[in-house]
Each structure stands twice: as C-alpha cells, then as structure tokens.
Amino acid sequence: MKDAFGAPQSLLVLGGTSQIALATARRLIARRTRTVWLAGRPSPALDSAAAELRTRGADVRTVDFDALDPESHETALGKIFTEGDIDMVLLAFGIAGDQGRDEEEPLSAVRVARTNYAGAVSAGLVCAGALQAQGHGSLVVLSSVAGERVRRADFIYGSSKAGLDAFTQGLGDALHGTGVHVMVVRPGAVRPQAAARPATPRLTAARFAAAPLEASPLVTTPDAVAAAIVTGLRRRSETVWVPGSLRVVMSALRHVPRPFFRRLPV
Description:
This protein has ten helices and seven strands. It is α/β, with parallel strands linked by helices. The chain has a seven-stranded parallel beta sheet with strand order 3-2-1-4-5-6-7, sandwiched between helices. Helix 2 links the parallel strand 2 and strand 3. Helix 1 packs across helix 8 (222-235), helix 3 (73-82) packs parallel to helix 5 and helix 5 runs parallel beside helix 6. The protein is globular and about 55 Å long. Mean pLDDT is 88; it is low at 196-202 and 204-215.
C-alpha cells in the first residue's frame, strides 16, 4: 500500500529500459519502494537495469513483455498481480519512429501506432482491471506534449500520443471513485542523461539529435520528469506537465489557427 506521501511499496514498469522509468524507480526506492517489476523484451539492457536497481536495495524482477503482442498481455501481466498487490504501474514504453520513412512506408507508421497506442490501450486496460480488482493503486502513463497539438514534423508519433493521452484521460474518468488513481504525464523534449545506457534514450535521440536542445527553456531531463511524477503521486494529480510552463505554452498553441500554426517553427 502507498503511504501518506504517495510512495508505493511495489512498482511495475512497462518499458523497463526507459530512462524516465528508471529515474522514477530510483527516486521511489530511495523513499519506500521495495519491490520492482521491470517488464520489457529480454535484453542485456533490461538485465543491466534490474541489476542496477538491486544495488539500491530493491527486490527487482524482470518479466517478458512485448507491446506489439497484445494477445499475451493479459497472461504476462496477470501473473505479476497474482504474486501480490501492485501499488503503482508506470506505462513508459513507446517508439518515435522516423517521420520521413514512415510517410513512405505505411507499415512502419502502423508499427508506431500499434506500439504507442494499441499496445498501451491493451496493457493499460489489463493493469487498470487488476488495480481495480485489488481496490487501490496508481496507473501513471507517459504521454507527450507532442500529442497536444500535432505538428507536421512528427504527426505520426504525435497522433499516437494524442490517442494515448485521450485514452488515459477517459480511463481515469472511468475509474474515478474505485480507489484507482490515473495520472497522465506530458513531458516536453527530454534530453538524455549523460550517463544513460545506450538503449534507453532512443526516443529523444531519434527525434531531437539535430536540435539545439540545451538552448530551449522547455527541454527537460529524465530525472526532472521523475521528480514531477513523484510529486504528482503525492498530490494525486491527474495531469502533470514537465516543465510546468508547458501548460501555458500549449494552452496558447492549441488555439492558434491552422494556417498560422503551419508557419510556426515548432
């Protein structure tokens, strides 16, 4: 069970090599979390992530999970909940794709949509049902500011995140009053941590490698997102923006007429 400050004793991460997820796990382990499940495709990166978290004092287990295989989700994730209650589920998987290639190769675009949206819908519903059955817990979903107003430059990725964001909000409404807390997290561009493992920053690396990230006040880091997640848990927030100033920026951009929005350097 979570304590009065929102710190979970047990954590399930879907997307076990995500920089943001691992930064969040470190913070939670430092507070109260003692059991961590890292779900993802078997890989040296997943094993390394588990080993590193074990050095911080947590009982860490890995489980095979593939976002692109929704038929397996109920069995794979259901087994975790039979081991004991899960206080928090962090849905942190996703792929950026390659906008230019994906426009020319529809099957590549479909893979982005299936991973970021269809896979998340499947896994999210399985975990939401399990949390509701146990009567408590938090489901935290990593969305993106890219889904708030979809840009020409990455509309395939952005549209998948827009769908995920809307799904998460609706799921939160559906679970209101059940004891299950649902929180959507909307980071801006996330600059990879300097000491990150090669496998973890692929979303940011693919989308922002050529951009002057350090110059933007709206850029964030995995650790900053993790800190915002922990604060959001304590406050039982429904929506978290990282950095917080993005709420105002996107509120303005959301209402810019399309002819003008097309011309903006965003």
